[in-house]
């Protein structure tokens, strides 16, 4: 069945029985993450809810249990900007779930002053890419055990802006701008999917990047209302109308359940479809820039990411 930008997560999952499937969702305590968990649980999946705010995450789990009787949910504390927290969360998840059918790296943020993590990474790159990079790689054994399985990395149409400065990832040399840092991290998300797809070939695990659309969620909590309006207004003016939260959750749910995506890997998805290639020189809020599929750039970022986390991975 064909879906579109207007489709909701419930519509995508209508008629699907996910009983017996284990799906991990990060950023589950609000917005797209909360809606994704609710829709997956309603379809019968067992969902591991990973979020930084444990109290809020538990409260959301209770709300979903009230709406979806019998929902199979568990909560895990994770701060994606803190690699020790990521390792603890991965260990906890693996101990409880030796098989994982899908991982949705949903969490993300934008805003705030230039912040450098103890590992030397700028915080947008750290929380939006390095943390999910480490979590995903640590969970590969469980994903492999459940294969065919799927990894989703949330990106954004923001990947189209700002480019990628390998020589100054932490903004030590250039002027810091949180939108540039965010855009860089969102391009990193596509590189991550491309790099994963290459390394996971033959394992039965696919990895794809997803642009959910532009949705008014807590992702904007650290920017001004004027900045939020700038982003949503630009998106609407350039081909991507504002979505509701149920519509925003649809593509990532589609990415982990659509039969037409069996074996499809290393691509960018939006509006419940393959993203079209649109040059970065074209002003557009839709489509993936061809540069995002640069395997050499993805490999370079992979090597940098391994150095930051202090661990090499072989699948």
What is the β-strand count?
A: 8
| CATH fold type | Rossmann fold
Net shape = globular
Sketch the major β-sheet.
8 strands, mixed
CA-CA gap between termini: 34 Å
Helices and strands, in order, run as HEHEHEHEHEHEHHHEEH
Low-confidence spans: pLDDT under 50, at least 5 residues?
none
CATH architecture type: 3-Layer(aba) Sandwich
* Total helical elements: 10
- Helix/strand/pairing category: alpha/beta
> Taking Cα atoms only, what radius of gyration do you get, to the nearest Å?
18 Å
Looking at CATH, the homologous superfamily is: NAD(P)-binding Rossmann-like Domain
Which range best describes the helical content: under 10%, 10-25%, 25-40%, 40-55%, 55-70% or over 70%?
40-55%
What does this structure look like?
Helix 2 runs parallel beside helix 3 and helix 5 (123-145) packs parallel to helix 6 (178-199). 41% of the residues lie in helices and 12% in strands. The protein has helices at residues 9-13, 31-42, 54-67, 83-96, 123-145, 178-199, 225-237, 245-248, 250-257, 295-309; strands at residues 22-26, 46-51, 72-77, 102-105, 149-154, 205-211, 268-270, 273-274. Helix 2 links the parallel strand 1 and strand 2. The chain has 315 residues and is α/β, with parallel strands linked by helices. It has one domain: NAD(P)-binding Rossmann-like Domain (Rossmann fold). The radius of gyration is 18 Å and the shape is globular. Strands 3-2-1-4-5-6-7-8 form an eight-stranded mixed beta sheet, sandwiched between helices.
């Amino acid at each position: 069945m064909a879906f579109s930008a207007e489709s909701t997560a419930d519509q995508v999952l209508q008629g699907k029985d996910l009983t017996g499937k284990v799906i991990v969702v990060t950023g589950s305590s609000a917005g797209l993450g909360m809606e994704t968990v609710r829709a997956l649980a309603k379809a019968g999946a067992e969902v591991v809810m990973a979020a930084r705010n444990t109290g809020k995450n538990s409260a959301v789990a209770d709300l979903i249990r009230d709406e979806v009787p019998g929902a199979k949910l568990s909560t895990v504390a994770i701060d994606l900007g803190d690699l020790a927290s990521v390792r603890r969360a991965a260990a906890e998840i693996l101990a409880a779930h030796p098989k994982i059918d899908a991982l949705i790296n949903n969490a993300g943020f934008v805003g705030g002053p230039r912040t450098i993590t103890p590992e030397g990474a700028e915080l947008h790159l750290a929380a939006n890419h390095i943390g999910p990079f480490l979590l995903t790689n640590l969970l590969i054994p469980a994903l492999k055990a459940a294969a065919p399985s799927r990894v989703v990395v949330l990106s954004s149409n923001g990947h189209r802006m700002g480019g990628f400065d390998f020589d100054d990832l932490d903004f030590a040399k250039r002027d810091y701008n949180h939108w540039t840092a965010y855009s860089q991290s969102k391009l990193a998300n596509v590189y991550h999917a491309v790099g994963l797809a290459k390394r996971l070939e033959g394992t039965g695990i696919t990895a794809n990047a997803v642009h959910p659309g532009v949705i008014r969620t807590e992702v904007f909590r650290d920017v001004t209302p004027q900045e939020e309006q700038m982003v949503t207004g630009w998106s609407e003016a350039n081909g991507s109308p504002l979505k509701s939260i149920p519509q925003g959750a649809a593509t990532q749910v589609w990415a982990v359940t659509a039969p037409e995506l069996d074996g499809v890997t290393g691509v960018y998805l939006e509006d419940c479809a393959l993203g079209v290639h649109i040059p970065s020189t074209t002003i557009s809020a839709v489509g993936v820039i061809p540069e995002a599929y640069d395997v050499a750039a993805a490999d370079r970022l992979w090597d940098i990411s391994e150095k930051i986390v202090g661990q090499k991975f072989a699948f």
